[in-house]
Amino acid sequence: xxxxxxxxxxxxxxxxxxxxxxxxxxxxxxxxxxxxxxxxxxxxxxxxxxxxxxxxxxxxxxxxxxxxxxxxxxxxxxxxxxxxxxxxxxxxxxxxxxxxxxxxxxxxxxxxxxxxxxxxxxxxxxxxxxxxxxxxxxxxxxxxxxxxxxxxxxxxxxxxxxxxxxxxxxxxxxxxxxxxxxxxxxxxxxxxxxxxxxxxxxxxxxxxxxxxxxxxxxxxxxxxxxxxxxxxxxxxxxxxxxxxxxxxxxxxxxxxxxxxxxx
Amino acid sequence: xxxxxxxxxxxxxxxxxxxxxxxxxxxxxxxxxxxxxxxxxxxxxxxxxxxxxxxxxxxxxxxxxxxxxxxxxxxxxxxxxxxxxxxxxxxxxxxxxxxxxxxxxxxxxxxxxxxxxxxxxxxxxxxxxxxxxxxxxxxxxxxxxxxxxxxxxxxxxxxxxxxxxxxxxxxxxxxxxxxxxxxxxxxxxxxxxxxxxxxxxxxxxxxxxxxxxxxxxxxxxxxxxxxxxxxxxxxxxxxxxxxxxxxxxxxxxxxxxxxxxxxxxxxxxxxxxxxxxxxxxxxxxxxxxxxxxxxxxxxxxxxxxxxxxxxxxx
Lengths: 263, 314
Description:
heterodimer, A: about 260 residues, mainly alpha, about 0% strand, B: Rossmann fold, six-stranded mixed beta sheet, five-stranded antiparallel beta sheet, 15 strands, about 30% strand, elongated
């Protein structure tokens, strides 16, 4: 079946993806403030609510206050959410509802570049939201280390990873309703298992094994120590897994999108 | 040459489920002409365009777009082509002017080059002063015109329009036709698909009728009419009360049409009689009580219906 293999060939990328990225950025710029507030409000409310509320019951976790523990997890999972929402709902709108991709493909821009632009854009948007959350965390004094700045590139990589995973769903989705499965079956359980709200050591051994393979676990393992002013353990492993998942997921998402649109 | 398609075949699916949508199509556009691709729904028009643009991979055959091989150099070729797609794909998050500027960006045209041309492009589309209008505030006709303006940001050699006037009111259609004629007068080559025969007859220097993925006829509108159909048509309809019975035009046709015309087709309540000389037929009909007639020269629609049949397609 030559057509199937052709769809899953390696990406052919060019710099023209920047024009598509810029399009998304220009739209975002129009509504930047509500967008940032939207991405900020939910995680910050959870962080402060759980942090101060539960924090009364849990005086210390792994040697720091509960809210300082929660700050790193919050940054990681809110980045995941922002990238996922953008790749799913906004990406699907542009691909399927508004036919934006179709219009762009009539210009000298290939589908590969459009999907790459969506990947990088969703990561960029999640990173912008992440920086805002980091600023709030710093303003509340939950991080004081300059090492926290090193979390920003990790946030971007986390965004890339979840954008790539999300684009697989977008390529398969018949309608918006489809995304509900992705959230209830993948994103929500992962948020609970990845050490965002409590240390993974609390989980049963067998669950720990699965949990430690989840991409969000690797993001948390990098971001939390950086916010606490520590150099993360096993940096290479965590970065490597995130990069590997990003590459594989993007390759799969691109193949599925080609199969969907180039016929 | 703006477009040259040779022996194009496009199949969907594989094995026993494969559907052949385009079956060995040859097409050659001359510089500066307006070429119309006619066909019923599902004939393969849009698939042919998608292959020509390199958005769908041909199963067999070769395509040269603006002299460049497709799909190998499709992107470079598309840089010299403008496209007005069938479905609205304007960017709802941008104003009219922003739609043009952002789209020009996809061609690598910097903002400082496209901004000064925006008023001229909007004026061409009959949208003077709509620079800051939101897309949601535009009517269907205005959106289609803005899409036409968008397709011109790169000053294309070849403009491809997929059913450009479907769903538009007569005023909007006439404005689009006038603009397309202006473009061909300025040297732009146009390829359009349509199922409006009057659109093809008015606009096209040459046309092709496509059905089931094959070209059934090709040439200037006059040539196609002359080659494929008798020059005169008499449409017969009404209640036939002659020869002792009250019945329709079909009953009349069953008894008399063969003797008085070369060919007769029944569609609904009407008999279409095709003939080289309508005089004997009209003389006969003048004495048939209840029947009414319309005598006219054959047109493209007659050819189209003869070649593609009268049954519904979808």
